[in-house]
Design a protein that fits this description.
- There is one protein chain.
- This protein is an alpha/beta fold.
- Helices cover about 50% and strands about 10% of the residues.
- It has one domain: SGNH hydrolase (Rossmann fold, 3-Layer(aba) Sandwich), CATH 3.40.50.1110.
- Helix 7 (about 130-150) links the parallel strand 4 (about 115) and strand 5.
Length: about 200
């Protein structure tokens, strides 16, 4: 039986999955699929999703799929939508909801391997420095959950920041939030490296 890999998140994971590459989209999930052809890879990212949206569809799009490895990348829209669309944001509720999602998955499969990838940004395009307070709160929650739940961890914000020292911002992220093809390649490389560590 093929190993089942589920990717959950927002537009960065979605990447046109309903119209490109048989449901995998044209971002990092698709790039991963080209390297792991013997795995069943499922993309359930939905553009615009916040953590509250994940909760509403968690049974259908995560628990019922029952993956062997679950990757979650969520959080940037919680910040973005607060500042641009005046959506409510509470870091306590964000953390509570994230814990609920993890608890439900681990109740279904205590041996499930979970990879938590952090949101990321560069201060350009749509992203504003004023967003950093809430963004940093989300980063703190990610670190806390990784330690408490003993999750596998990919700090994409750190990765993108380091890449920006030698590469122009716009070559990594189109608008300070969404990755370019190079940005997706970097995410894919980080994920594959983590996958290899898990499989050792």
């Amino acid at each position: 039986m093929k190993e089942k890999l589920l990717f959950q998140g927002d537009s960065i994971t979605d990447c046109n999955r309903k119209s490109k590459n048989k449901g995998l989209g044209d971002g990092y999930v698709y790039l991963i699929s080209k390297e792991l052809e013997n795995c069943e890879i499922i993309n359930r990212g939905i553009s615009g999703n916040r953590i509250s949206n994940l909760k509403k569809r968690w049974v259908r799009d995560a628990i019922n799929i029952n993956p062997d490895i679950l990757t979650i990348l969520i959080g940037i829209n919680d910040v973005w939508h607060m500042h641009v669309f005046r959506k409510r944001f509470s870091i306590d509720k964000f953390e509570k909801t994230y814990r609920e999602l993890l608890d439900l998955m681990l109740a279904k499969n205590p041996k499930l391997k979970i990879i938590l990838m952090t949101p990321f940004n560069l201060e350009m395009g749509v992203y504003r420095k004023a967003w950093n307070k809430e963004f940093n709160q989300i980063m703190d929650v990610c670190h806390k959950l990784v330690i408490e739940y003993r999750l596998h961890f990919i700090n994409l914000h750190e990765t993108i920041q380091i890449a920006s020292y030698t590469t122009k911002f716009e070559e990594l992220l189109y608008d300070g939030v969404h990755p370019t093809p190079l940005g997706h390649e970097i995410i894919k490389n980080e994920w594959i490296q983590m996958y290899k560590q898990i499989k050792k």
